[in-house]
Design a protein that fits this description.
Distance between the termini: 62 Å
Shape: elongated
Mean pLDDT: 91
Strand order of the largest sheet: 1-2-3
Number of strands: 5
Order of helices and strands: EEEHEE
Low-confidence stretches: 1-14
């Protein structure tokens, strides 16, 4: 990897679409705005890397480490991020349209306003992640760990929630009307308000300003 140079502050790496950097150490690399579409970054170390507004469409990041990476506005559409560690990563306004995040770790990540339409999250961990105003329509959240996730203002239209753990999730202003396979047991401990929208299979009766009763139609 002769094109890899180090500075006192970070790694500077001129990269190109389709490059193979599997298992490479790119921790704290400055890759802002880089074009890495189709790149192969399997098991690469990108912890703390700066990838704001980077183009990573259809890249392979299987098992990659992106802990605390700066990914604001990056385009990961169609990416394979299965098994990747994105804990504490900043993914605000990132595009992950139809990305594969099966088994990935996004715990305490910031995905506010992210485009997560059609994402595969099966078996992923998103404990205490920020998903405020994210678009999760048609996403597969089967067996996902969503404990303490903030879904405020989130669009979950058509999202599959089979066996997802939503203990303590925050669902203020969230739209779950067309969410699939959502049970009362999954959301019984969730924080809601009058603007939270539920499927027709789940009924809620408000008794006062902050008092309500769960039930089923």
């Amino acid at each position: 990897m002769g094109f890899l140079t180090k500075s006192a502050d970070a790694t500077v790496l001129p990269v190109f679409s389709g490059v193979n950097l599997s298992r490479g150490d790119l921790s704290y690399a400055d890759l802002r705005g880089s074009h890495l579409a189709g790149a192969i970054l399997i098991a690469a170390n990108l912890c703390g890397a700066k990838l704001e507004r980077a183009h990573l469409q259809n890249a392979k990041l299987i098992g990659a480490k992106l802990i605390a990476a700066k990914l604001v506005g990056a385009d990961f559409s169609g990416c394979d991020l299965s098994g990747a560690d994105l804990s504490k990563a900043d993914l605000r306004r990132a595009c992950l349209f139809e990305a594969n995040l099966s088994g990935a770790n996004l715990s305490e990540g910031n995905l506010e306003g992210a485009d997560l339409k059609g994402c595969k999250f099966s078996g992923a961990r998103l404990v205490r992640a920020n998903l405020i105003k994210a678009d999760l329509s048609a996403a597969d959240l089967t067996r996902t760990d969503l404990r303490g996730v903030d879904f405020a203002g989130c669009d979950l239209t058509g999202a599959l929630l089979t066996d997802a753990d939503m203990t303590g999730a925050r669902l203020l202003h969230a739209d779950l009307r067309l969410a699939k396979d959502l049970s009362l047991e999954q959301i019984r401990s969730a924080k809601i308000d009058r603007s939270t929208k539920f499927p027709g299979t789940i009924k809620i009766t408000w008794k006062g300003k902050n008092e309500f009763e769960w039930g089923k139609n």
